[in-house]
């Protein structure tokens, strides 16, 4: 019998791509989302790609009674918990909103899992827990020391990791895999789903594609005086479809009987690219010239980080292998589709 996975935040950027991969891997999916940062139409895109329309629950997971009532209506085997607020700047302005949304929803789900005999949860964490690793710790492994978060958003990731750890150590009858993502980018090759930032984007790739489209006038590269080969920051940019596939591998593993109760995996490519390399690769891969300039550093930015993903490669049997050129072309195709559809 097919297993059923609850995907919270399933209409969001990573959630929608993961829903597609889960359906294609033979799982039933129930999406729970409050549409605070996504649109219901995303479900149409998922259906076009997979031929299957996942169940959709419009719900605020901070409401425990509503969440309980939802879980009573399905027989859920596992949860992938994406639903969270994720804008770094906004979290500095509205810290309590971030603590309430991101922490209450996780606590509610964890409390309800044993009640409904749900065995495994995959949690979306971030490489932000490592802060700026020391040079000898690059590429960063799962054992690298954590550093104090520079924003309430980052802090919620650290706190949620600890909540899961404490709960499992208390003997709770659940298992968890914590995935620490590096920088997810790109869109499904069909251009039927992708990233849809609200307002002016903060993240690099939507800023690049919107500038290339002429929606934004110019991209500013934040700082070119960093201690890196070309002076711009370095990140580990991972294709969202590769990232989605890591969730399928993690879900399969967490629901197996003989695996550890709690595991952590870095989910990246193992390679670092500078902001300038991203811009130049985008221009080369798409043939579109980008209007960009160099500006001052952005407060709170990390100079360089990329992941050692050997653990995920060997234990999950998963690898991010899509070439960067193809990933950037997918982001551009998605931007073109948004134009074609009159979205922006
Ligand atoms: C940020 C968050 C991270 C979060 C992630 C969610 C910080 C310090 N980190 O990652 O915690 O998990 O978003 O997606 O905010 N850049 C420019 N010009 C731009 C935009 C970005 O030069 O207009 C540069 C940035 O300086 C950075 C790189 O592009 O070096 C990537 O930036 P971004 O996409 O915002 O991701 P992070 O800052 O790595």
TrEMBL record:
Coiled-coil segments: none
Keyword Transmembrane: no
Catalytically driven reaction(s): UDP-alpha-D-glucose = UDP-alpha-D-galactose
Recorded metabolic or biological pathway in which this protein acts: Carbohydrate metabolism; galactose metabolism
The protein's required cofactors: NAD(+)
Xref: CDD domains: UDP_G4E_1_SDR_e
GO CC annotation, single: cytosol
Keyword set, alphabetical order: Carbohydrate metabolism, Isomerase, NAD
Residue ranges occupied by any NAD(P)-binding domain in the UniProt entry: 6-327
Matches recorded under InterPro entries: NAD(P)-bd_dom, NAD(P)-bd_dom_sf, UDP_G4E
Superkingdom, natural source: Bacteria
Enzyme Commission code: 5.1.3.2
Enzyme superclass (EC): isomerase
Pfam family, one: GDP_Man_Dehyd
GO terms for MF: UDP-glucose 4-epimerase activity
Keyword Isomerase: yes
GO biological process: galactose metabolic process
Subunit structure: Homodimer.
Family classification: Belongs to the NAD(P)-dependent epimerase/dehydratase family.
Name of the protein in its database record: UDP-glucose 4-epimerase
Organism of provenance: Prevotella micans F0438
Upper taxonomic lineage: Bacteria, Pseudomonadati, Bacteroidota, Bacteroidia, Bacteroidales
């Amino acid at each position: 019998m097919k297993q059923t996975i609850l995907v919270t935040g399933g209409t969001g950027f990573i959630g929608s791509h993961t829903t597609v991969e889960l359906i294609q891997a033979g799982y039933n999916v129930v999406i729970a989302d409050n549409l605070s940062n996504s649109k219901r139409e995303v479900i149409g895109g998922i259906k076009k790609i997979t031929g299957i329309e996942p169940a959709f629950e419009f719900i605020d997971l901070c409401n425990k009674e509503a969440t309980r009532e939802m879980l009573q209506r399905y027989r859920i085997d596992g949860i992938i918990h994406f639903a969270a607020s994720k804008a770094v700047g906004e979290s500095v302005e509205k810290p309590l909103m971030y603590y309430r949304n991101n922490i209450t929803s996780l606590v509610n789900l964890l409390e309800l899992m044993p009640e409904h005999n749900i065995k495994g949860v995959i949690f979306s964490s971030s490489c932000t827990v490592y802060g700026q690793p020391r040079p000898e710790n690059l590429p960063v492994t799962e054992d690298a020391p954590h550093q104090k978060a520079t924003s309430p958003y980052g802090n919620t990731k650290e706190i949620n990791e600890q909540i899961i750890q404490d709960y499992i150590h208390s003997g709770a009858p659940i298992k968890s895999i914590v995935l620490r993502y590096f920088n997810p980018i790109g869109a499904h090759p069909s251009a039927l789903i992708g990233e849809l930032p609200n307002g002016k984007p903060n993240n690099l790739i939507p800023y690049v594609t919107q500038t290339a489209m002429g929606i934004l006038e110019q991209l500013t590269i934040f700082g070119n005086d960093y201690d890196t080969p070309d002076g711009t920051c370095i990140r580990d940019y991972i294709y969202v479809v590769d990232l989605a596939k890591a969730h399928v591998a993690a879900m399969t593993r967490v629901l197996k009987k003989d695996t550890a109760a709690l595991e952590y995996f870095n989910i990246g490519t193992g390679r670092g690219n500078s902001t300038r390399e991203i811009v130049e690769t985008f221009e080369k891969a798409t043939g579109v010239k980008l209007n960009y300039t160099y500006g001052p550093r952005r407060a709170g930015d990390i100079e360089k980080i990329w992941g050692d993903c050997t653990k995920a490669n060997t234990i999950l049997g998963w690898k991010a292998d899509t070439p960067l050129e193809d990933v950037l072309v997918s982001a551009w195709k998605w931007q073109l589709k948004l134009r074609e559809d009159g979205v922006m």
